[in-house]
Amino acid sequence: MLDSLVTSKTRIKLLLKFFSHTNSGYLRSLAKEFDESTNSVRVELNRLAEAGLLVSNDAGKTKVYKANEAHPFFGEIKGMVAKFLGLDDLLEKVVKRMGNVEKAIITGDYANGIDSGVIQMTLIGKDLDREYLDFLIEKTYEKINRKVSVTILEKDSDEVSGILVYGK
Questions:
Q1: Residue 12 is inside which H or E element, if any?
Q2: Which Gene3D superfamilies match (predicted)?
């Protein structure tokens, strides 16, 4: 859906990053997270900031970006991203009832803006309730008609790449 409306894969990744959760980021970390060149990320950050969708603050020498919650289309874009991901309810329930979730990361095709029908997610945390997760995955499939594949890691790994939708 989003890939037919927005032609830049980098822009899709930025929209998913900033409008799926109250995320912020700076150029180099975003380029590393998306495995993209800093130049392509810079171009898209500038376009989104010029459109008023992102705001930036200086933190020393670093410019930190986040979604502009005052933008008239903030709610609509956030809703569109949530529908694209289909995970807004799942994430809220996972974080509240699964245990000590440190991070939730969308990986795979959805992290790249492609609606393949299978949503891949990595949860990082200890002593997570796997039975409850299986229940949520089944209910999510019934609700949004997409399979959810979840990998659970106890420790954060630099090898997991995707879009951080919960945690820091």
A1: helix 9-20
A2: Winged helix-like DNA-binding domain superfamily/Winged helix DNA-binding domain
